[in-house]
Amino acid sequence: MKISVSGVTDRGRVRPHNEDALIVDLAHGVFAVADGMGGHAAGEVASGLAIDVVTELLARRRPSDEDAVELLRRAVDLSNERIASHSENSPEYRHMGTTIVVAIAAGARYWIAHVGDSRAYLVRGAEIFQLTSDHSFVNELVRLGMLSREQAARDPRRNVVTRALGSGAGVAPDIFEGEAAPGDVLVLCSDGLNTMLDDQRILSVLRGAGSIERGSAELVAAANAAGGEDNVTVVVVSFDADDAG
Ligand code: CA
């Protein structure tokens, strides 16, 4: 399988800083989006620390079938510990944290780990599937049947995450694996994308773009056109048959 990737991050139209961070490492098949929080410069520090750990642990060599899940767990644990020790040592970073969604791709197989409300989607043909389930207050209400997905998307509490890296206590990531078919596209994003664009809009922008480079750029542009209320980060990974060139 031939893997291609395009990643874009943008401050959006309202926030003074970009607290999102990303890794796009095609050589090792490692892709991630982190969305930091904590006020002032702390969010940037937290998301940056998480991306540094992912780079350290995962992008040194190509993870294999045997160790992908274990490496993802270690990356989540170590990011969590490192952010927590940073915030203990500096009062201005006391409440910082970050989400993370990481994908490892090897051939047609991929593994995804996530904590928080950054998402992974799979686009297959004319359909889009949300692979991750947000660790967020409003998603808990959706699960309990107290809010619809549409209400959750507009709820003022939608930014409240129920799991994040940086607390220091053990954080359990959701980890799963999948097998890509030729033509499949994975999308990793921060909530600045999916709070501005619903799933069908994400699908139609990608399908209309013609290439993943244009797709990632046009998704960010569409989120900004819809208000750009938050930082927005998109990593688009495509899987194509080897003979597709
Ligand atoms: Ca965000």
Description of the structure:
By secondary structure, the chain is α+β, with helices and mostly antiparallel strands. The protein is built from 7 helices and 11 strands. It has helices at residues 42-58, 68-89, 137-143, 149-154, 191-194, 199-209, 212-225, and strands spanning 2-10, 20-25, 30-37, 97-98, 100-106, 109-115, 119-124, 127-130, 174-179, 185-189, 232-240. The strands form 2 sheets. Strands 2, 3, 4, 5, 6 and 9 form a 6-stranded antiparallel β-sheet that branches. Helix 1 (42-58) packs antiparallel against helix 2 (68-89) and helix 6 crosses helix 7. The protein is globular. It binds calcium ion. Residues 35, 190-192, 230-231 line the site of calcium ion.
Map the helices and strands:
Blueprint: E1 2-10, E2 20-25, E3 30-37, H1 42-58, H2 68-89, E4 97-98, E5 100-106, E6 109-115, E7 119-124, E8 127-130, H3 137-143, H4 149-154, E9 174-179, E10 185-189, H5 191-194, H6 199-209, H7 212-225, E11 232-240
Antiparallel strand pairs: 1-11, 2-3, 3-4, 3-5, 5-6, 6-9, 7-8, 7-10, 10-11
The protein binds calcium ion (CA).
Short overview:
This protein is an alpha+beta fold and 245 residues long.
Give the names of the bound compounds: calcium ion
- Poorly predicted ranges: none
| Number of E-type strands | 11
Shape: globular
Mean pLDDT: 93
Rg over CA atoms, rounded to whole Å, is 17 Å
| Beta-strand fraction estimate | 25-35%
Q: Mind describing the biggest β-sheet?
A: 6 strands, antiparallel
**H and E order:** EEEHHEEEEEHHEEHHHE
Q: What's the end-to-end separation, in Å?
A: 10 Å
What proportion of the residues is helical, as a percent range?
A: 25-40%
Number of helices: 7
How would you classify the helix and strand content by structural class? alpha+beta
